[in-house]
Design brief:
Helices cover 58% and strands 7% of the residues. The protein has a 6-stranded parallel sheet with strand order 3-2-1-4-5-6. The protein is globular, with a radius of gyration of 25 Å.
């Protein structure tokens, strides 16, 4: 394939990537955006195969068949509630692919790697390091989300020092590889350090911060792919990796801002490891909480004209999105205005609540971001909280000793009535109590979110 034609094909695929991302930023055009980006990737893959002059395609075809079969099984069998785990796993696959390609290029090229230029050996080192961290870090994130290991932060003495020493070892071995690409000892140390560092970097991060972790690992996978693009001299891989890396970093910053916490605190703060003094064990005495029923809720809904529903991870766990949609439809038939308030870090991955509600055919225009809807809670008759905790905790505004103090929250406590569907009074991921549950205008409705929402819909319909 002629060099000029190759670069033109990569440029065309890059344009499709960019237009695809632009169209995926809006719900109505997201499907076509995904299709454009997929076509762009197909063009890039075919171009790479033709440019490299592959003579035997049997292995590649076998990989396509196996990968497509695995993708089909995952797409049809994985529940929407398990999407965070799925995204974490796919990030890991991207990371290990970059690591393997960079390693193979180093072992294949030997002393000829990067002759006359340090770009290729540096890119190889970055591909192995970032890809390895992404792979094992994503596996830990998957295990936490799948509850195969404890979701709470795992800490031990001198943890930060140990991580720093491993990182220094990785950097030193990387420098040795750049100086001498035939140094297999340095390569082994680098690969091992990257894999270990990925595990140790994610285990101290709690479940509440998983949306940020997934976004950051997604960025890492893009950066690893970009580095691998320099290793292979593949412009398409450089461009696509850069897009993924930059998009992940931007999204990570947006979510950190939404929590009013720096990324360093997310990565090293072990958030949620212990209950804070602002309301967990050892906090202030709380009055006893009375439990209400769906029939009690129906009475309040009967006089309401506006309702804002706040979904959280509890809705995802019980797969209550369809029951919630039914409740919305019943209320709207009664003349009630219903909308959904979406906190940026609700759930376990970026856009988790949006995905679940879209799967239940809730109109996307009814999903309103926190900044746009917070001012409307004081004029709202009922705020219905379903499985959310920390993102509606007023302690973030009032308690300076709380670990979530300063975090922007949904101002549900300003509504005339607040209903909270919750299994029990157990705290959320932050490990702290929520004073919202004890307010005079709060009705605690204990039970499974799916069954309770369905019972509410039935009670409202019959009222």
């Amino acid at each position: 394939m002629a060099p000029a034609l190759t670069q033109l094909a990569y440029l065309f695929s890059a344009v499709l990537f960019i237009f695809g991302i632009v169209r995926m930023s809006a719900a109505k055009t997201a499907v076509s955006g995904n299709l454009l980006a997929s076509v762009g990737m197909l063009v890039a893959v075919v171009t790479a195969l033709l440019d490299r002059g592959v003579l035997r395609y049997e292995v590649i075809l076998a990989g396509v068949v196996v990968g497509s079969a695995a993708g089909l099984v995952l797409a049809t069998r994985i529940q929407m509630t398990a999407m965070p785990q799925m995204v974490a796993l796919l990030n890991g696959f991207g990371g290990i692919a970059s690591t393997l390609v960079a390693s193979a290029e180093l072992l294949r090229g030997g002393a000829s790697v990067g002759e006359g230029s340090a770009v290729v050996p540096v890119a190889i080192v970055l591909g192995i390091l970032i890809g390895g961290v992404t792979f094992t870090g994503s596996l830990v994130a998957f295990a936490k989300l799948q509850e195969l290991m404890a979701g709470a932060p795992i800490t031990y003495p001198l943890q930060k020092l140990v991580n720093a020493l491993i990182l220094i070892g990785a950097v030193v071995s990387g420098v040795l590889i750049v100086l001498d690409p035939t140094d297999l000892t340095a390569f082994t140390v680098l690969a091992a350090a990257a894999l270990v560092l990925g595990v140790l970097a994610v285990i101290p991060i709690g479940g509440a911060d998983m949306p940020v972790v997934i976004s950051l690992l997604n960025s890492y996978s893009g950066l690893a792919a970009c580095a691998t693009g320099f290793v292979l001299g593949n412009a398409g891989l450089v461009i696509s990796g850069s897009l993924v890396g930059s998009a992940g970093i931007i999204l990570t910053k947006i979510m950190c801002d939404a929590m009013n916490r720096p990324l360093s605190n997310v990565l090293f703060g072990a958030f949620g490891a212990v209950a804070a003094s602002g309301g967990g064990a050892g906090g202030p005495e709380r009055p006893p909480v009375k439990g209400y029923t769906p029939d009690d809720a129906a009475i309040v809904f009967g006089s309401a004209r506006s309702v804002i529903i706040v979904p959280g991870y509890g809705m995802a766990v019980s797969q209550a999105q369809h029951a919630v949609r039914e409740l919305m439809e019943v209320l709207e038939r009664k003349g009630v205005k219903v909308r959904f308030a979406i906190h940026p870090v609700a759930g376990r991955m970026p856009g988790h609540m949006n995905v679940l509600l879209a799967e239940a055919n809730v109109p996307y225009e009814k999903l309103v971001e926190m900044d746009q809807i917070n001012s409307e809670f004081p004029e709202t008759d009922v705020a219905l909280v379903i499985g959310a905790n920390d993102v509606v905790n007023p302690a973030a505004r009032t308690d300076q000793t709380s670990p979530i103090y300063g975090m922007p929250i949904l101002d549900v406590d300003y509504a005339a009535h607040v209903m909270v569907i919750k299994r029990s009074m157990n705290p959320g991921f932050a490990g702290i109590d929520n004073p919202l549950f004890y307010n005079d205008n709060t009705m605690m409705i204990f039970g499974d979110a799916k069954g309770t929402a369905a019972a509410m819909a039935e009670a409202v319909e019959e009222s």
